[in-house]
Amino acid sequence: MLESILHMQLGSAAAPDAGLERELKFVLAEARAASMLAFLRALCRPDGRYATSVVSTIYYDTPGLQLLGEKTDSDYQKLKVRLRWYRVPEGQAGSPGSFLEVKRRIGALRDKVRIETPLEAATLDHMSLENPALGSVLELITSLGLSVPMPLMPALLLRYQRHRFVEPISGTRVSLDMNITAVRGRRGLFGSGAGGPLPAAVVEIKGQADDLPRALRPVAHLGTRKASFSKYGMAARALR
To answer: Which of 10, 113, 157, 197 falls between 20 and 30 A from 179, CA-CA?
Structure first.
């Protein structure tokens, strides 16, 4: 599957890892997220139009939660299939649509394909996870020529606030995800499906380097720990 993704994005003449990006994650307590946000604002510049947004994500999984198992078992290769939409601060223009994403991780490397869907954010905010439209949208994966475990179903809705930055010296992209909330899970997969806030926030640093750029090294010493953090995995544990 990874080879198919790379072929689509980069062309058959690309080097095997040319489209892969490294992703470092540093986990911290939600109570310390405001202090981390102030630090990143002082060190970095906002990243583009959508420097601040509320991200909503529906994670898909099999009836046996195969994709969740890849995370909890720390499998070297991990797959995510998710539907994502965004809300931006009032007064700013945001996308009214949503995006279906297929993301593969191989160790510390990642690759992602996304396609816009006809489902609008305003509708998705209140849509039940059992709504047939959320299953039908998976047909877009077939149109991309990708293969994923089937059958897949909407398993869990997660929402958080994302702040995106660029470190100006290295050009490294940085994001802080805070106020992470497991909104609800699919009944039958996660008990009653009732959700709630999670106790952790996460800093994600994306680029080609194996380690933190010099300017960002203090991140590792501001009450964080470097970890393979999964929002889906943590939300699933909270719901179960």
So the answer is: 113
